[in-house]
Amino acid sequence: MSNMLEVKDLKAYYGPSQALHGISFSLSKGGITTLLGANGAGKTTTLRAICGMVRAEGSVIIDGEPVTGKATESVVRLGVGHVPEGRGTFTELSVEENLRVAAYTRRDKAAAARDLEMVFTYFPRLKERMAQQAGTLSGGEQQMLAISRALMLGPRLMLLDEPSFGLAPLIVQEIFRIMRRINEEAKVSMLLVEQNAALALELADHAYVLETGRVVMSGTSAEVRSDEQIRKSYLGY
Amino acid sequence: MATTMTTETSAAGDPAALPGLRRPIPKWIWLGIIFAALLPLIGGQTGLISNFYFLQLSLMIVYSIAVLGLNLLTGFNGQISLGHGAFFAVGAYVTAILIDRYEMHYLATLPLAMIACFIVGYLFGRPALRLEGHYLALATFALAIAVPQFLKYRHFEPLTHGVQGINIFNPDPPFGLPLSPDQWLYLVVLACAVVMFIVARNIVQSRMGRAMMAIRDQPLAADTMGINSARTKSITFGISALYVGLAGALHAIIFEFVSPDSFRFELSIAMLVGAVIGGIATLSGAVIGGFFVQFIEKYADALTKWITSTVHLPIHLEPWTIYGIVLIVLMYTMPMGIAGGLASLWRKIRPPG
Amino acid sequence: MEQLLQQVASGLANGAIYALLALALVMIFVSTNHINFAQGEMAMFSAFVCWQLLNWGYSFWVALPATMLFSFTIGVLIERIILRPLHTAPLLSVVVVFIGLLAIFHSLAGAIWTHTVKPFPSPFPDFSLVHSGIIGPHQIGMVVVAVGMLGLLFCFFRFTPLGLAMRAAALNATSARLVGINVDWMLALGWGLAATVGSVAGVLVAPVVYLEPNMMAGILLYGFAGALVGGISSPGGAVAGGFIVGVLENMVAYLGNMLERATGFYLIGNGEKLTVALIIVITVLTLKPSGLFGHVTVKRV
């Protein structure tokens, strides 16, 4: 089986300073891979580099198609739903507009309408808030909106940047449950960046641990979880 | 811009910090000034440089002082002004009225014009503190429009002579010096400029200057570091107006005439363009800016004539088209102005180490 | 009383022009944070293009759409060619580039069409119904067209996917890219639309102030003031602000007139009305810095 995402020797730069020093990993079709590590390890940068949001070198192949050096919007149009750090809500737009704008580039309007229905089955709360200005939503609701917005692109691959950030544990559990459902029902592969390693390892099948822009270890979630050394030194639990 | 000034920002609270910044003025600059001061003897007496050319040089120096004043506000303190022509006008009129109406000695009017402009600038800057960015741009824009109207205002006509303006006369050189009035005024203007540039240099390198730049780069951090930004900003406004006012006063004396229409909005724009093209937040940029303000029109005109004579155009090309193109091209090639562009060129060609 | 009504009506008519120009300024501001100081000169240039088409014998209803299309193209080209390389340039450099554009449009208009003042026909029929003395047909036309333009733009931004994508690109460029929107093109389209709105303002004001390269100089200032009164980032506010400035300016002159007639003391006349109106606008802005219809944005440090 070919991979949904294949990253080889990826380097990324913010101005003159290098943030990624050649990392490689892969994500199988239908799988969930998580990137773990401390603050500043390069997790968010990796997601940004995949989407052409920072200057990057190396090879990124999405479902057989090389995307390094492409503009963000072109990568996105290949079916990549990026749920960014800080959620990226269009705060001045309504919830409905936030969802509609994500379907802007889709030719197949019927499929987009079906996806909207799908979003509502996952997040019924958003349906109640359709006319509300998105900036007035709670943090958890904004995270749901961000995931829904990525879903409205009809993605094959989702990049999720700390979906648990700043949310109450109950809401986090709900969101992770739904992410599992999306992965299974909509057949969306996921690359998950998380601070909360325990949670991420529960959801993901593979894990890569980053430190200062390099992969320091990888394996199946079960392997990483069972290795006490790694848990203590990198994951802190 | 924010990153280039971080060293100043971090030291803004400590007046004794960064002693290395207080470098002496390089020798070649002093040599240049001495040469400029000797020009009336060298060029004037031999007839190599005409009186008209001295007039133009004087105007260039005057605009340099004005651009320097605007630069202190916009470049070093980050407050944009589209209306500094207003202070130029106030300075010019104070001098003209004092000479015309009260028969004061022209040199004595200069400090009074400067004080008047400082007060006007400070008073304008005080309420304008609440305005930032584009709102300040509008307020100063309005000031530039308002002042000529004000000078034409019916009830001030006894002083200002309304639209007719005020005629004054070029003073003769004192002590029977063998100089023409134009040559003498050139020396006066040059002396004023030297003093004002040294003062500006000291301001920028002082605690006040670091506070100005801190406010520009990190307004919130400056507040938390104990800089009184309201006071600093309005005083900067006053100082800036003082510089421009002096330039206006000198302009009135050189030009022998003031009228409301000499100080139209275009003057304010020319000063801003001069400050940015010369090199914002640099002192040398002000000299280049003054040169640009005084001579660009002439060169644009010449270039237009040359283009019209070499290529056949279906329309009658105007100099302002060239001017606009020059501005855009300069901003592409040297976004930090000519001074900034030359500095980075120098860093590239200079051998490392 | 009738004189007062007349002043308000003509203030509204002038306000319609300021409103359109303010709207054009705001459309560019929301997506780029720049005030396009060349907006007025671009509108003036468009008015000349329309005049030229009329002069060649085309009917107004051919000339106007052609002018709008021309202006749209120019707007898009300016963004794509001249401003694109400056996306990361310092603010003051961009201001100088706008001044350069202003000089170019101004001098090109002078070079092509000379600086002599030209009459410009009003496109609106001179039907007798409106000859009540309070307001002329052209003034009514200006208000109707301005409000109509606003309505069209409102519908475009509110109800079309492209309009929504343009708003999204202006509000949050990063997020817009992440949903596949080509933000660069949205900026260019915004410039095109702004230039189009400005061209309508130019064509409408030309019959009032007569056509010449200087005609928009003062009007840009009013538009700028209108945009700021409305809170710079709000298109609806900009239109309201434009009307407010228009009426305010006439009120100032009217009250000054009244005072002079009552007391014989000349305080404010037509010469000072712009200045006084601006002082009022700026005073209001110092008291309420986000404009009448704007909202305070909280910036994270």
Please give a structural write-up.
The complex is a heterotrimer of chains A (237), B (353) and C (301). The model of chain A has no long low-confidence stretch (mean pLDDT 89). The radius of gyration of chain A is 17 Å and the shape is globular. Chain A has 237 residues and is α/β, with parallel strands linked by helices. Chain A has a six-stranded mixed β-sheet with strand order 6-7-8-3-9-10, with helices on both faces. Chain A has a four-stranded antiparallel β-sheet with strand order 2-1-4-5, with helices on one face. Chain A has helices spanning 43-50, 72-77, 95-102, 109-122, 124-128, 139-151, 169-185, 197-203, 221-226, 228-235, and strands at 3-14, 17-28, 32-36, 55-62, 65-66, 80-83, 157-161, 189-193, 206-211, 214-220. With 353 residues, chain B is mostly helical. Chain B has helices at 6-10, 27-46, 51-77, 85-102, 106-128, 133-152, 157-160, 181-205, 207-217, 219-224, 229-255, 265-279, 283-310, 319-333, 337-349, and strands at 166-167, 257-258. The longest helix of chain B is centred in the last third of the chain and has 28 residues, at 283-310. Chain B is globular. Chain C has one domain (2-215). In chain C, 74% of the residues lie in helices and 0% in strands. In chain C, helix 1 runs antiparallel to helix 10 (235-263) and helix 9 packs parallel to helix 11. At the B-C interface, helix 6, helix 12 and helix 14 of B face helix 4, helix 9 and helix 11 of C.
